[in-house]
Amino acid sequence: MSLTVSDDLLRRARSGEVSDADFVACVRDSLPYAWQVISEVAGRSRRTPDGFADNRVPPPDEAARGQLLRALAGDAMRGALERHFDVRLAFQNCHRVAAFVPDAPGAAERYATFVSPRAQLLNQSPELVDC
User: Fold this and answer.
1) How many whole angstroms separate alpha carbon 37 and alpha carbon 39?
2) Which Pfam families match (predicted)?
3) What is the pLDDT along the chain (131 residues), one digit of tens a residue?
4) Residue pair 88/111 in contact by the 8 Å Cβ criterion
5) Domain locations in the chain?
6) Checking phi first, is residue 106 left (phi over 0); if not, alpha (psi -120 to 50) or beta?
7) Do 123 and 98 contact (CB within 8 A), yes or no?
């Protein structure tokens, strides 16, 4: 299961829309490793001149790796995290998470380069075969 949803939040979702804040809190509480990595990368991206930061440290275990995969593979979760942190997220090789500040100089070009097939191929290594 991706998220641990409280009875109250589930009840509210069944009866109508749920706020981004409530959804983001659910993601934060359900996927703490993913939250930590994404919030750290997003925060660092705001402190760099080009609005870019990434994480290259592999997760400590498969449970943590699974959290990153779930957080970034789900459109609703990824979108909510991008809106919450006001960044665009990108993901390579089950742990390389990057954040791009949308209005930073050159951000669109840097994002396009990061998500290109060339960048994906260059980011491969024997250690990532089971990724």
Assistant:
1) 6
2) KH_NucS_shadow (PF20704)
3) 589 999 999 999 999 989 999 999 999 999 999 999 999 999 999 999 999 999 988 899 999 999 999 999 889 999 999 999 999 999 887 778 999 999 999 888 888 888 788 877 776 666 555 55
4) yes
5) 7-128
6) left
7) no
